[in-house]
Design brief:
Helix content: 10-25%
CATH class of the largest domain: Alpha Beta
Low-confidence stretches: none
Bound molecules: zinc ion
Radius of gyration: 22 Å
CATH architecture of the largest domain: Alpha-Beta Complex
Strand order of the largest sheet: 2-1-3-4-5
Order of helices and strands: EHEHEEEEHEEHEHEEE
Strand content: 25-35%
Shape: flat
Oligomer: single chain
Distance between the termini: 51 Å
Mean pLDDT: 92
Number of domains: 3
Length: about 280
């Protein structure tokens, strides 16, 4: 924390979903940065249940959210988090949770975005008319109910989703209502992905917050700005047997959030011939 440019500073955190519990501890401990919750309507920037579509990418949304909190509180520093659920970027068909956490600092013009990809997610849904109680209960068990809440909405039609359900009786009642209000008599039962009712997601947000903290605690060797850290990787690690470049990571690239300075660190060793396009086509 010694010399941290964030020591004694308070940042606005735009959240309606208790994200301060995941983000506050590492920021305070390592950077001396405090958080002030800005209770702005972050749902206006999009919801997981689809009533409000999400314009732009998660990265753009997280920065817009941070700015929303800054203008609501007048803090020159803002923080926000945003999640994206879908197939894993490199493992097709595997569900993943990508969590973005951003810091915007108008005092210095710094913008830092950190992201974490996690396979640990209960992101799932079931289409049901609610009469097969065993199937419903099996699904609820799979998504970690009741520690994780669920949402229910009509499968077809414009009915509003019922969110934050944590009691079995409430789930079946909501399924009956949604099925009755659906053009095809079916309801959709899904994991509630909002952080305050989804401890699995809250853990991934905490990991992203820790990553952001580490990045902000690392200064650029060239311009001394905070926010130096991993940017990406380059493939091409040579095969151990024949030396052909493979898709395995060959170089890790780190960079500055403010200046163009980059560091390329080659990965030691060689790739297994099993991942070689020539030895194992
Ligand atoms: Zn720099
Ligand atoms: Zn080879």
């Amino acid at each position: 924390m010694e010399g941290s440019p964030f020591r004694g500073v308070t940042a606005a955190l735009a959240t309606m979903h208790g994200k301060q519990w995941a983000l506050r501890p590492p920021l305070r401990r390592r950077l001396g940065l405090g958080l002030r919750v800005a209770a702005v309507d972050t749902d206006a920037l999009g919801t997981f249940t689809g009533e409000v579509p999400r314009p732009g990418t998660a990265r753009e949304t997280v920065l817009r959210k941070a700015r929303l909190g800054m203008s609501a509180t007048g803090c020159p520093v803002g923080l926000a988090s945003e999640g994206a659920f879908g197939p894993h970027p490199t493992l097709p068909g595997v569900p993943a949770d990508v969590e973005y956490v951003a810091l915007v600092d108008d005092r210095s013009g710094l913008t830092v975005v950190e992201s974490v990809v996690s396979l640990e997610t209960n992101h799932a849904q079931l289409t049901t008319d609610g009469r097969d109680r065993l199937a419903v209960v099996a699904f609820l068990r799979r998504v970690g109910f009741p520690h994780h809440a669920v949402v229910v909405r009509p499968a077809r039609g414009a009915g509003r989703p019922e969110k934050g359900l944590r009691r079995l009786g409430d789930v079946f009642a909501a399924l009956r209502r949604a099925a009755a209000g659906s053009a095809d008599g079916d309801a959709v039962l899904a994991a509630d992905l909002r952080a305050h009712v989804n401890p699995t997601r809250m853990r991934v947000i905490a990991a992203a917050g820790l990553g952001l903290t580490r990045r902000l605690a690392t200064t650029c060797p060239e311009c001394a700005a905070p926010g130096f850290g991993p940017l990406g990787t380059e493939a091409g690690l040579p095969c151990r047997d024949c030396g052909t470049p493979t898709h395995d990571v060959a170089v890790r690239v780190s960079g500055c959030a403010r200046c163009p300075y980059r560091e390329r660190r080659p990965v030691a060793g060689a790739a297994d011939p099993g991942s070689c396009p020539r030895c194992n086509p």
